[in-house]
Amino acid sequence: MFDLIIIGAGPAGLTAALYSGRSRLKTLLIEKMIVGGRILLSEKIENYPGFPGGVSTQELIQRMEEQIKELDIEIIQDEVIDMDCKGKSVKTISGVYSAKSIILACGSYPRKLNITGEERLTGRGVSYCATCDGPLYREKNVVIVGGGNAVAEEAIYLSRLAKTVNIIHRRNDLRASAILQEKLKKNPKINFILSSVVSEILGSDKLEALKVKDVNTQAERILSCDGVFIYIGYDPETGFLKNKLALDEKGFIITGQDMSTSSPGIFACGDCCKKTLYQVINACGDGAVAADSADKYIATFKE
Ligand code: NAP
Questions:
Q1: In the 8-state DSSP scheme, what is residue 97?
Q2: Cβ neighbours of residue 57 under 8 Å, at least 6 residues apart?
Q3: Residue 97 located in a structural domain
Q4: Ligand 1 atom 38: the closest Cα is on which residue?
Q5: Catalytic positions, please?
Q6: Is the domain of 73 the same as that of 131?
Q7: Distance 303 CA to ligand 1 centre (A)
Q8: Which of 41, 157, 191, 269 is the most buried (most CB within 10 A)?
Q9: Which CATH number covers residue 215?
């Protein structure tokens, strides 16, 4: 029996663990993939305070992990497949764990285009992680799909490796922050294909080209390339919480100011929550609040 179970070891979960460890709560941190989570799909973060010029996401996560290793936190690699909100227990692939309180920091996963060729050629030219796969495309021609901050940051990263980087975005305007857009426009290797969508991914054993459709004229053309990186947003990892907690229509967890959910003693933090800004800085802030709220909730057992 633990005091607290934290599900997910991204920045939100790691910060929650830091605070719970410092409150001397007997804590279990469960991560299904690798410590760090989806932030590791990006190479660098430029807007985390205290790091002028930015910091590599790997370094930031390593530092967070080292900090919690100084505390008595048990970390296991396992996937949570079910949760009993009332009984405060979680079922994983390998067992069942119980606690007085639970923090959900389960994050989100990359959205797919859901077009022909995408699934078949994933890992053979189609990628969702520039940091992981970018080095395979040195001096090659790559495409990156989307128009948000992730596309902008990863296009800049890829331009340091690839020969050309084409950004394909479905509208005429990017939604990336102004400072990132300025950097994109100044970069001679980056080109824009706007008001366009990728309608098919072509290739037999590996990606050879994309079918690109102009959304205004509906005209289609074939664009040869060696790799395509898809950065069209994220969906919350909350499938196992359906009908257990209040979620919004997209599956994000609805929380109060104290990161409480609709079920007493269950808190949530980070990218799995419904909010207006999805950044590492406020994922960490949420994690701290969630751990503090869980600590107060657990204290009611002692009274
Ligand atoms: P995002 O901001 O949600 O942008 C997703 C982009 O993909 C949008 O431009 C959207 O187009 C496009 N899109 C969505 N579905 C599509 C589809 N089916 N086909 C084609 N295009 C599609 O996602 P993100 O850039 O991955 O970022 C996710 C969150 O993390 C955001 O809140 C972002 O601010 C944050 N983030 C922050 C930083 C940073 O500040 N350092 C870095 C990375 C990410 P429309 O514009 O037309 O909707």
A1: E
A2: 36, 39, 40, 42, 43, 44, 45, 131
A3: yes
A4: 149
A5: 129, 132-133
A6: no
A7: 46
A8: 269
A9: 3.50.50.60
Which residue has a Cα nearest atom 22 of ligand 1?
232
Kindly state whether residue 134 falls inside one of the protein's structural domains. Answer: yes
Number of domains in the chain: 2
Question: Distance from the CA of 232 to the center of ligand 1, in angstroms?
Answer: 5
Of 193, 213, 230, which one is at a domain's C-terminal end?
Answer: 230
Under 8 Å CB-to-CB from 237, ≥6 apart: which residues? 8, 106, 107, 108, 109, 272
Q: For position 303, what pLDDT does the model report?
A: 64
Cβ neighbours of residue 286 under 8 Å, at least 6 residues apart?
Answer: 12, 15, 255, 259, 268, 269, 270, 273, 275
Whether the per-residue pLDDT at 137 is higher than 90: the answer is yes
- Distance between Cα 61 and ligand 1 center (Å): 22
Given a cut of 80, whether residue 193 has pLDDT beyond it is yes
Please say if the pLDDT value at position 292 is more than 70: yes
225: burial class by Cβ within 10 Å (0-12, 13-18, 19+)? buried
pTM of the full structure: 0.87
Closest residue CA from atom 7 of ligand 1: 232
Name every protein residue with a CB atom under 6 angstroms from any ligand 1 atom. 42, 45, 47, 113, 146-151, 153, 170-171, 175, 197, 231-234, 278-279
Distance 145 CA to ligand 1 centre (A): 10
Domain-terminating residue out of 230, 250, 273: 230
Q: What is the DSSP letter of 214?
A: E
pLDDT (mean) for 219-238: 97
